[in-house]
Structure formats: structure tokens, C-alpha cells
Amino acid sequence: MAESLKRLYIFTGKGGVGKTTLSLAFTRWLQEQGHSATYLTLSQQALSDETARTESLPAGWESVPHVHLELEAAAEGYITKKLGSALLAKWIVKTAFFRALVNMLPGFGYVISIGKILEMLHVDPKLIIVLDAPASGHALTMMEATSNFREIFQSGLVFEDTEKMLAKLYDPQHTGVRIMTLPTTLAMQEALELQVAVHKLAPLNAKIFLNHSLASWSEAIAEAPKALKEKLRLELDVMELHPQDVAGRFAYSAKSDATSVYQDLKATLGGLA
């Protein structure tokens, strides 16, 4: 594995910026480079009695290796590991007290899920996980949660486990945060605020990437409707204001199917590493 590659990539950003498409495309790109990569999504970070929904990939991306991490299964796995009994773990997770505890404590579900992700990486030293994380605020909560629980449990097994988790999660050689945004002032401002918050939390290199860029289309849309040219002008204004803040751009793709969109993105996906 190349030294520049991380073991865990956390893709986040404001809703609707294209982080799912880009994280799927990056996973596929990693595979094409010969790496063992998996696209990972999380279930709702609360325990309920409802039957878990089957999560499927968007049309055209079905060949990308995908793990949908259910919180209940992750909790059972953790307790089994600590108590040495799968039967007892299953019973504990089903108790009203445990479910209320997980749902009541902010971020507890994320701690369990992050622990499972890091365990997967430990078991398979060659694996790279691309996490399609929740939108900005929830993603920050997810990253803060482990640190918060270290403060709550200042000794014992949970404290020791969170210490080990933080050593990996907050290691810039291990974890990369990739913030997706759109070429608008408001979207860029939210991305910058998230980047600052991540940097305050840990020494991670949280990079901002501009998606749906029209810059490469500037000549092609010279005769386009006024609204489209105005959109390009606004993008160029954003780039003029933040020339050092954007780590890379992904051009707007007019293609309608996943295979063609991937071909449009492929040339610049390496920048996400």
C-alpha cells in the first residue's frame, strides 16, 4: 500500500453535495489501483425494535464492495468480545435498559460503530474503508463522540477501548477527512467551518473538494442561457475568495448513468487520496 494512502477515509459535507457518488467512485478507483477497498454506510445510530432495512447501492454502483453497518450487530459484536458469550450479548442488547442507554447518550451509537470499523481495519491490515458519513454536523458529532466518552469513562474497559480508538481515529497517517462542497458561498462557508472544527478536534488533514464544478465547461457554455453563465461566474467568485482552501475540483457531469459519470470523475479521483 502506498504510504500516502489512509486506512480510513471519512467523506462528509452538506446534504446534496454528492458525497455518496464521490465516495463510491473513490472506492472503485482504489480497487482499480489494486487496493482492497470497501464502501461503508451506517445505519441510524439508535436502537429500535423495527426490522433492519436492507441497504442497496444506487443503480450502476452494485459492483462496488459495500458493507452496511447495523448498530445492533456492532453492539452485539462488541459485547460478545468483552464477555465471551454471543448468547449473553444478544440478550443484553435486547434489554430495555441497554437500548435506552445507547439512545439517551449523545454519540454512544457512533462510538460503537467507529469501534467496529476500526476492528475491521485491524483484522484485515490491507483493507481501506471509505465511509460515506452523515452530513456535516452529524459527522462532527461522530468524530467527537469517542473523545467525549473517554472523558466520561475515565477508567476501566470503556476508557481503555476509547483510548485505543482515538489513537487510530485521530492519527493523520491512518484517517483522512474529505469534505465535499458545492461552488457557492454558503456551501463553502459551511465546509470551512467544518474543516476548522475537525482541526480543533484532532491533527487530521481535513481537505475540501469542490463538486459539480463548471469551470472546465467555460468555453462550452459561452453561448449558454444567462442563468448557467451566472452559475459559472458565482463559482469563479468563490474560487477567487478561497484559492488556498480547495484541495481539488470535480467537474459537473452531464451523464445520466453511473458508468459514464465514473469515467468523467476518474481522472481526478486520485486527488482524494
Provide a brief overview of the structure.
The protein is α/β, with parallel strands linked by helices and 273 residues long.
Task: Describe this protein's structure.
- With 273 residues, this protein is α/β, with parallel strands linked by helices.
- It has a single domain (8-272), classed as 3-Layer(aba) Sandwich (Rossmann fold), CATH 3.40.50.
- It contains 10 helices and 7 strands.
- The chain has helices at residues 19-32, 71-83, 86-94, 96-104, 108-123, 136-152, 156-169, 185-201, 226-241, 258-266; strands at 8-13, 36-42, 66-69, 127-132, 175-181, 207-213, 246-251.
- β6, α9 (226-241) and β7 (246-251) form a beta-alpha-beta unit.
- The protein is elongated, with a radius of gyration of 20 Å.
- The termini are close together.
Mean pLDDT: 89
Indicate the CATH topology. Answer: Rossmann fold
The ordered H/E elements are: EHEEHHHHEHHEHEHEH
Q: Round the Cα radius of gyration to an integer and report it.
A: 20 Å
Helical proportion, percent range = 40-55%
**Structure class:** alpha/beta
What number of domains? Answer: 1
Across the major sheet, the strand order is 3-2-4-1-5-6-7
Helical region count?
Answer: 10
Give the CATH superfamily: P-loop containing nucleotide triphosphate hydrolases
Alpha-carbon distance between the termini? 12 Å
Contiguous low-pLDDT stretches (5 residues minimum) are: none
The global form is elongated
Beta-strand portion reads 15-25%
Give the number of DSSP strands. 7
So, CATH architecture?
3-Layer(aba) Sandwich
CATH class annotation: Alpha Beta
